[in-house]
Amino acid sequence: MKCASSFTFSKALNFGSLAARSLNSCIIFPLKCSIRTGRMESNDNNGNLKDNDGGSRGAFIVLEGLDRSGKTSQSSKLLSFLEGLGHPTELWRFPDRTTSIGQMISAYLSNQSQLDDHTIHLLYSANRWEKSSLMETQLKSGTTLVVDRYSYSGVAFSSAKGLDFEWCKAPEIGLLAPDLVLYLDIPPEKAAERGGYGGERYEKLEFQRKVAECYQALRDPSWKIIDGCQPMEEIQKQLQEIVLDHVSACKKGRPLSHLW
Ligand SMILES: Nc1ncnc2c1ncn2[C@@H]1O[C@H](COP(=O)(O)OP(=O)(O)O)[C@@H](O)[C@H]1O
Ligand SMILES: Cc1cn([C@H]2C[C@H](O)[C@@H](COP(=O)(O)OP(=O)(O)O)O2)c(=O)[nH]c1=O
């Protein structure tokens, strides 16, 4: 894979932290299906409700996979499932196209603008950084976040273009790490058959094959790999079984960690 030449590692890091500092002060409009804030409550030994300050929090769950692997369908089913069990839950997605950075990304994806590969990579990252403090607030207030794509998409798609793998990871350093990555595994050819690709920039079979290889390189043993070719209901059942353990571990105070 080719190395970034004029753009150094430290510049990428500086960009990431600068974007985080300046954008965190902006008004943020999160893309979500439900908003529930407020403190978690639990019973003390006498059965009285008390504030839950002891690190109890929501779980950070990420769905990853190729375009058309079923992430959006499964994310919303997961949201309904968790809400149905009474867990405060929000559905987020990246890129979040509602912010001004997100709109630049959207214009690029629909081929209305042209950007250097490094530049768009850093914009995707900035789009995550501008949401990171809100993300942390929500998790700490007890809300579980189901997130459709995260840093792994950033690295897989940009390194599939030929950018250096480690360079691609650098601007993500320090972002919150998910508690669980659910990877919907589907051959690129199968994904392409699903309703056909639209006109977006990356929706091309040859490119998706490279993305699949880059995801392979990025995977770690903690990822849950789900066969995305199964019927939707079967996938849904498997995801439900996996997430509950993580939701309860986070409720019991599993600490938040950071990438990578
Ligand atoms: N398990 C599945 N089997 C068959 N079709 C599916 C399955 N999951 C999703 N689809 C269909 O594939 C298309 C893309 O699904 P979507 O959830 O939008 O994927 P993504 O968000 O990963 O791009 C939709 O038409 C959806 O109905
Ligand atoms: C989050 C992210 C997405 N992408 C790509 C993946 C998708 O092809 C595209 C748009 O993402 P998305 O809107 O999730 O598309 P889809 O629903 O088809 O999966 O942006 C990146 O290249 N880098 C990133 O950091």
UniProtKB/TrEMBL annotation:
A Pfam short name: Thymidylate_kin
Pathway: Pyrimidine metabolism; dTTP biosynthesis
InterPro entries for the chain: P-loop_NTPase, Thymidylate_kin-like_dom, Thymidylate_kin_CS, Thymidylate_kinase
Keywords: ATP-binding, Kinase, Nucleotide biosynthesis, Nucleotide-binding, Transferase
GO molecular function list: ATP binding; dTMP kinase activity; nucleoside diphosphate kinase activity
Annotated GO biological process: dTDP biosynthetic process; dTTP biosynthetic process; dUDP biosynthetic process
Domain of life, source organism: Eukaryota
Residue span(s) of domain Thymidylate kinase-like: 63-238
Entry EC no(s): 2.7.4.9
Keyword Kinase annotated: yes
GO CC, any one term: cytoplasm
Signal peptide positions (record): none
NCBIfam families registered for this protein in UniProt: DTMP_kinase
Family: Belongs to the thymidylate kinase family.
Protein name as it appears in the record: Thymidylate kinase
The organism of origin for this protein: Manihot esculenta
